[in-house]
Every structure is written in structure tokens, then in C-alpha cells.
Design goal:
With about 150 residues, this protein is mainly beta. The protein has one domain: Hotdog Thioesterase (Thiol Ester Dehydrase, Chain A, Roll). It has a 6-stranded antiparallel sheet, covered by helices on one side. Strand 4 and strand 5 form a beta hairpin.
Length: about 150
């Protein structure tokens, strides 16, 4: 069951190939979303990561999870065409198993806290029911005319 297809996602997120890392949304609730990324052998990052043993980089798994979270945040905003969602924090990232060509990455993100312009979400990515990654991300809404937020400091 597809709730949002790739064209609908492109109407919400500003990302485009090769950096759009969500192919469809299969579940969407007020505080929870499930996105799908079909990992294929012709992803550009596999040319160098690694040519003889292709593995999806962990940072791109996190990015795919953050984009899924971004769909949830932007979907609920009436003037979303004037907004961007910036990833401002990544916490408790864990990578359990490699993601390889042919895998279907299922990313479930849940809202932990949400304020007017900030959302903290926790997520789990699985392949065939096996956990491959976990993360907490914080996203900040900004007007497209604004500069990106300053990096978070520890």
C-alpha cells in the first residue's frame, strides 16, 4: 500500500536525484511515518563505496531516515512550498547490518517532541524485518529565504 508515491514526495521534499533517498511512503500518521528506499546496484555512491563490496554508506541511511522524517514534518505544514527542513542534530546512531544492492530499506520514524519549528524524531531502519540502523534526529523548519541554521555544538 502506497500512501505517497515518488511524485508526491517530490512535491513535498526539495531533494532530487541523486540525493532523494525516499521512494515511497507506505504509512503516514500525525506522529509516525514509514518510508521505503529501494537500494539498487546503480546508485552513484556504490561506484566508490565499495567497488568490490557495495555497501550503502551509514550517513546516507541516516539521510534517508531524516528525509522520511522531513516528509512528515512538511506534510503537516500548509505553506510547505516556502519552507525547508534542516537536519540539525543526529544522536544515538547505530548501524547493525550492512545495506546492499537489492535491499528494500524500511524506515520508521516517530515524533518524540515537536514544537512550532523543531521536531525530534526516533527511527529504526530495517531490511526484511532485521534492524540495520537506529537514530534520533532533530529537524528545524526554516523559511526558504533564511540562511541554514548554524551547526549544533556539543
Amino acid at each position: 500500500m502506497t500512501v505517497l508515491d515518488i511524485n508526491e514526495i517530490k512535491g513535498i521534499l526539495p531533494h532530487r536525484y541523486p540525493f532523494l533517498l525516499v521512494d515511497r511512503i507506505v504509512e503516514l500518521e500525525a506522529d509516525r511515518i514509514v518510508g521505503i528506499k529501494n537500494v539498487t546496484a546503480n546508485e552513484p555512491f556504490f561506484q566508490g563505496h565499495f567497488p568490490d563490496f557495495p555497501v550503502m554508506p551509514g550517513v546516507l541511511i541516516i539521510e534517508a531516515m531524516a528525509q522520511t522524517a522531513g516528509v512528515l514534518v512538511l506534510k503537516s505544514i500548509p505553506d510547505r512550498e516556502n519552507k525547508l527542513v534542516f537536519l540539525v542534530a543526529v544522536e544515538n546512531a547505530r548501524f547493525r547490518k550492512p545495506v546492499v544492492p537489492g535491499d528494500t530499506l524500511r524506515m520508521e520514524m516517530k515524533v518524540i517532541k515537536r514544537k512550532a519549528s523543531v521536531a525530534k524524531m526516533a527511527g529504526v531502519a530495517t531490511v526484511d524485518g532485521v534492524v540495520v540502523a537506529e537514530v534520533e534526529v532533530m529537524c528545524k523548519l526554516a523559511d526558504k529565504a533564511e540562511k541554514p541554521p548554524a551547526p549544533a555544538t556539543a
